[in-house]
Amino acid sequence: DRPTEPIFMEKGKAAVFDVPDKFLTDRYRPISTEVQSRFGEKAEQRIPVREISIPDLRVPMSLARDAQFSLFIPAHRRIAGRLIDIFMGVRSIDDLQSVAVFARDRVNPYLFNYALSVALLHRPDTKGLDLPSFAQNFPDKFVDSRVFRQVREEATVVPDGSRMPITIPRDYTASDLEPEHRLWYFREDLGINLHHWHWHLVYPFEAGDRAVVNKDRRGELFYYMHQQVVARYNLERFSNNLARVVRFNNLREPIAEGYFPKMDSLVSSRAWPPRFEDTKLSDLNRELDQINLDVSDMERWRDRIFEAISQGFATDESGNRVPLDNAGGIDILGNIMESSIISPNRSLYGDFHNMGHVFISYSHDPDHRHLESFGVMGDSATAMRDPVFYRWHAYIDDIFQEHKIRLPPYTLPELDYDGVTVTGIQVSPEGGQANVLQTFWQQSDVDLSRGMDFVPRGNVFARFTHLQHTPFTYTINVNNDSGAQRFGTVRIFLGPKRDERRQGMLFKDQRLLMVELDKFIVALNPGQNTIRRRSTESSVTIPFERTFRNLDENRPAAGSADELEFNFCGCGWPNHMLIPKGLPEGLECELFVMVSNYDQDRVEQELVGTCSDAASYCGVRDRLYPDRRPMGYPFDRLSRAGADRLVNFLTPNMSIVDVVVRHDNRVVPRAA
Ligand code: CUO
After folding, report:
1. Domain boundary residue among 129, 161, 187?
2. Which end of the chain is more exposed for a tag (fewer CB within 10 A), N or C?
3. DSSP of 497-524, one letter per residue?
C-alpha cells in the first residue's frame, strides 16, 4: 500500500514542487516566473503537483499564520478538525499532495503540520509513510533559542561537511538555587517531549471523524501512559533527593513553582512566556481564543467527576447510567477526564484535564491584556518541560486512583499461574556487576536544519546532553510443573524500595511508583526454563534512532521491508530514559517480575508488520491493545487483604530482586 511515486523525493537531492500558477498566493502570483526559477535553479528533482479545484480553506486560514497553535484550545481544535477533514477527504495521494502544497503557503505552520501528520497516520493509503521528526521540523519547541543564532552563523560561514555541532548547554533554564532544576534532564529531554507529542498525535481527543478518536481503550491508555510518566518522574525525584511531586489539587492555591522556558517560537517570533513563582490561576476571558471560563467551572466539573466515581456510574447525555465500577470503567473515565469527544457527557463533566492545561498556560495573561500567548503547558510538545505538568498530572492520576481503589483487589486466581514458578531473577549490565544498573551522561547530535531557513543548505547539528544507561540483560528462571508447554506474559517493573524518608514502603504507596520496564510473551517448556531478554528490546521504549530519525547512514534501504518497519511509528518512550538516574551512592530499588497466564492475557489478532514494539505506552496501530488485562496490572489495584507489602503480595509466579541504580557523573560522546 505504499504511496505512488510523486509524493517521494529522492534522498539527498534538492527538490522543488512544480506548482500550478493558480496555487501561488496573491503576493507571488504576479512574479511567478521569477519565484519559480529562483527556487528551481538548484533543484535536482522537480515534483509535479496536480492541478485541482481550490479547496475551501477559510476555516483553517482563520488562525493567523504567525499565531501559536494549541490543541488544548477548543477553537483551535475545531480549526484543526476542519483541516484534518480536508486532508482525509481527498480521494488519492496525488490530490492530497496538491491540497497540502496549496495549504502549506496559506495556513499556520503548526496547524498545517499537525493536521497533515494526523491525516498521514490515519489515511489507509499513507500509513507506511515516514513522518519527519517533529524536532527537526520545529526545533524551536525543543531547544534553547540561543542555539539558533549560532546555527545560522555556522551554516552561513562554514560549508556543509565542515560544520561543527552546536552544543546546547546543559543548565540553561535555571540555576541550582531552584531545587526543581535538578530534574532538567527529564523535563527538557528531547526524546521524552517527542514521545509525548507523538502520543497525543496518535491519540487525538477531537476530530471530525469519530473513528480517528475512538481507538481501542484510548481513555484507559490516557490514564496509564500519564500515570507512568508521574511514577517515572517520582523515581527521578528520589534520584535527586527530592520528595514525591505534590499534586495540584487546590485550584485556588498559588503555583509555587515558576518556569522560564528560554525558547522563542520561530513561527510567531515571540518568546514562550514564563510563569513566575506563586502565580495563581484566574478566570479566563480571552476573546481571541474564544475562551470564557471561570476557575469555578473547573471546580464544578471536578466535583461532578468525583460524584460519578463515588456513585459508580456516570450519566450520559440522555440521562442513562454508564457504569464505571468494572474493569472497563477506567476507559470511560479517561475519556471523561481528558476529555475526548467520546466522553459520554461533555456538557456535564466538561473538559477538566485539557482546560487545566489551558488555565495554567494562561495564568500570566488570563484576559489577554498583555497580548501574550500561552506558556509551555499549552502545547503537548513542550508541556513536560514545566514542573507544574507533573503536579497537574499527579492530581489527574489521584482522581483516577479514587476510582481504582473502589474496585475489588485481584483474587488469587486472577494473579496466580498454576504450576508456574519464578525461581530466580538477575539483571546483568554489560561489563558490570550483577543487579547494579549504571547511568551516566551522553552527548548526541540531532540535525536541526530541516526546520530552519538558511542558505547554503545542508545539515547543522545540535549536540545535547541526555541521561543514558549501560545496556543490560534480564535472566529469569521459570519452573513449569504443569507437564506441558505453557505460554506466559512476562511483566517487569521497577520501583523504589524506600520512600523519601528512607522508610520501607507499603504496597498501597509503592504500587503507584512501579514503572513498567518490559512486557513480552514466552513459551515455557516443562521443567526449568531460562529466559534472557535485553533492555534494548523493551516494550516501553523505542531506540534513539527512531526517536530522532536523523542518523541517515543507519537507515534501511529505501523501499525495503526493513524501512517499512522502521518508519511505522515514532511513539515510544526514549530508550535512553528507560531507567531513572539513580544516585552516586546507589538508589535502592526492587525489580519485580511476574509471569501471568497467557490464556487470560491473550488478544486474538495479527501483529505482523504493525508498529508494536513500544506497545506498552503507545498501543499498536490499527489494532487492539495487545494485552487483555487492565493496564498497569497487577499494580493498578490495591493489594489483597493482609498483604500490605510487596513481598506479601507475591504469588509463586512472581518474584522480586533488590537492584541498585548507580549514577556516574561522567559525560561520554555517542559512539559513532
Ligand atoms: Cu499528555 Cu496533559 O495529557 O499532557
Report:
1. 129
2. C
3. SB-TTSPBPPHHHHGGGPEEEEEEEEEE
C-alpha closest to that of 464 among 224, 223, 151: 151
Distance from Cα 384 to the centre of ligand 1, integer Å? 8
Q: Are residues 183 and 40 in the same domain?
A: no
Contact 71, 200 (CB under 8 A): yes
Q: Is the CB of residue 390 less than 8 Å from the CB of residue 357?
A: no
Over range 99-108, report the average pLDDT: 93
Would the CB of 361 count as within 6 Å of ligand 1?
Answer: no
Residues belonging to the chain: 672
Pocket test for ligand 1, best of 218, 248, 359, 380 (most atoms within 8 A of CB): 380
Expressed as residue numbers, the domain containing 192 is 179-404
Residue 180: which residues within 8 A CB-CB, separation 6 or more? 174, 242, 257, 387
Measured in angstroms, how far is the CA atom of residue 89 from the centroid of ligand 1? 28
- The residues pairing with 504 across neighbouring beta strands, listed in sequence order, are 498
The yes-or-no answer on residue 10 being catalytic is: no
Give the mean pLDDT of 445-459.
69
Q: What is the pLDDT of residue 320?
A: 98
Structure pTM?
0.93
Q: Which atom of ligand 1 is the closest one to the Cα of 393?
A: 2
**pLDDT of 450:** 67
d(CA 346, CA 350): 5
Q: Rounded to 5 degrees, what are φ and ψ at 563?
A: -65, -40
Please check whether residue 205 lies inside any domain of the structure.
Answer: yes
Confidence class of residue 89 from pLDDT cuts 50, 70 and 90? very high
**Which pLDDT tens digit goes with each residue over 499-512?**
999 999 999 999 99
End residue of a domain, out of 348, 382, 404:
404
Catalytic residue among 180, 220, 338, 590: 338
N-terminal to C-terminal alpha carbon distance within the chain:
35
Looking at the structure, do residues 393 and 316 belong to the same domain, yes or no? yes
Q: What sign for the dihedral angle of Cα 592, 597, 603, 604? A: positive
* Residue 199 belongs to some domain of the structure: yes
Residue 325 falls within a domain, yes or no?
yes
CA dist., res. 535 & res. 387, Å (int) = 28
- Cα–Cα distance, 403 to 407 (Å, whole number): 7
Residue 34 lies in a domain: yes
- Alpha-carbon distance of 664 to 454, in angstroms, equals 39
Minimal-distance CA residue to ligand 1 atom 4: 380
Nearest atom in ligand 1 to the alpha carbon of residue 199 is 1
Half-sphere exposure of residue 202: CA atoms within 13 angstroms, side-chain side: 30
Q: What is the β-pairing status of strands 264-265 and 270-271?
A: antiparallel
Categorize the per-residue pLDDT at 603 as very low, low, confident or very high, splitting at 50, 70 and 90. very high
Q: Are residues 396 and 257 in the same domain?
A: yes
Burial label, 604 (beta-carbon count in 10 A; 0-12, 13-18, 19+): exposed
| 255 and 349 part of one domain | yes
Give the ipTM of the model, two decimals please: 0.99
How many structural domains are present in the chain?
2
